[in-house]
Amino acid sequence: MRRTWMAAGLIVALPLASGCDRAPTAPTSVPVPAAVVTAPTTLAVAGATLRLEASAWRDFQPIAPSGGSPLYLVVRLRTTSGSPLPEGIGIDQAWVVHESMAWITAPSPTGAPWGPDVIEFMAREGPRWGPDVPVDVVVRVTGTDGGPKLIAVRQAMIDRTD
Asked: Is 73 exposed, middle or buried (0-12, 13-18, 19+ CB in 10 A)?
């Protein structure tokens, strides 16, 4: 039984340890670009319609830092029809906007095997907003015809894990 708990503790602690030596990224208080503010919620690329899903949360479990963890963000880009994503699609930048502030980050692919119609990216070490506050999440999609394009999720709530 003791080994089971030790293994469970390692499974939880290892992903957190990879970012423990970095300070949370401070949000900027500069005006958010108009293109980010007006980004659409769907995007047509190579005959497919894409939509964005976003999950944002802060961890308040006993192993979390005092006052809770910095913000975590997971975004999924998927087709609306279930057809495969166009070849070469990716995400290279994300804006998480809360009121007049933005956290600008470069999310990393998670490698999660969701299927041919979805890709997932994650960013860690964000600001300590919320929980229970709405944010707009906007990502820059790469690999599209005509250069990078923006897509948004509006009013995503920052959740709390306890």
From this structure: buried
Q: Whole-angstrom Cα distance, residue 106 to residue 109?
A: 10
CATH of domain 24-161: 2.60.40
d(CA 110, CA 63): 23
What length does the chain have? 162
pLDDT digits (tens, 9 = 90+) for 40-55: 999 999 999 999 999 9
3-state secondary structure 11-56: HHHHHHHCCCCCCCCCCECCCCCHHHHCCCCEEEECCEEEEEEEEE
Per-residue pLDDT tens over the stretch 69-115: 999 999 999 999 989 999 999 999 999 999 989 999 999 999 888 89
